Amino acid sequence: DVKVTQSSRYLVKRTGEKVFLECVQDMDHENMFWYRQDPGLGLRLIYFSYDVKMKEKGDIPEGYSVSREKKERFSLILESASTNQTSMYLCASSLSDRGTSGRYNEQFFGPGTRLTVL
Amino acid sequence: GEDVEQSLFLSVREGDSSVINCTYTDSSSTYLYWYKQEPGAGLQLLTYIFSNMDMKQDQRLTVLLNKKDKHLSLRIADTQTGDSAIYFCAETSLSNYQLIWGAGTKLIIKP
Q: What is the rounded CA–CA span in Å between residue B91 and residue A8?
C-alpha cells in the first residue's frame, strides 16, 4: 500500500513564525503536491513538484515556498505565518504514468495537518 | 482554465440512495475520479471511470458518465451512517500532471 505521512496532525503557531510542514511518501512517486482545504472552497493547489529539486506554482502560492531535496520528501514552508493561513494542509503524491493500476494521475493523500495561526 | 463543479451539500435519509452530481469542462478529460474524505482524515480514492465507459458498478456504488453533457454522477445505494463524508469529484487528462478538483459535496445522513 502507498503510504503518505505528514509530520504533524495538529500544529499551533504564532503570527510571524516560520512554519515547516513535511510530507514523506514511500512508493517512489515522481509527483508530489501540497493543497490547502478550506470549507466551501475544496482543495486549492499551493505548489507541486514533478521531480527532485523541481517545483511549480499552483493556484495560491503566495506566502508559501517548497523544497524537494529528495524524491520521497516534499516540504511546505510558511516564511512568516499569518492568521489567514489557518487551514487544513494536505499532501499528495502520484506516479508520472499509469503504473500497474491504469489510473492516470491517481493521487494518494496523507492524513492532513490542521494548522492554526494565532 | 478547466473547471469542475459540485453542489456543496446533500442530505439523505439512512437507507435511501444518494446521488452526488459533478460537471466538468475539459473535453479532453480521460479519467474521472471520486474521492471520499471522512471527518478529520485525508482523501481516499473511492471509485473511478475512464472516459470510454458510460457506467461502472462496484457493490453499492454506481458511477454514470455522460460525455456529451460532461456530467458525472455517483450513486450510493442503501446509504449508511458510515457514508457520511465529503465526496470530491476530480478529472484529469493525458496532457496534465494534475487532477482538477470539485469543491466537494458533504453528504449528511438523517436517521
A: 29
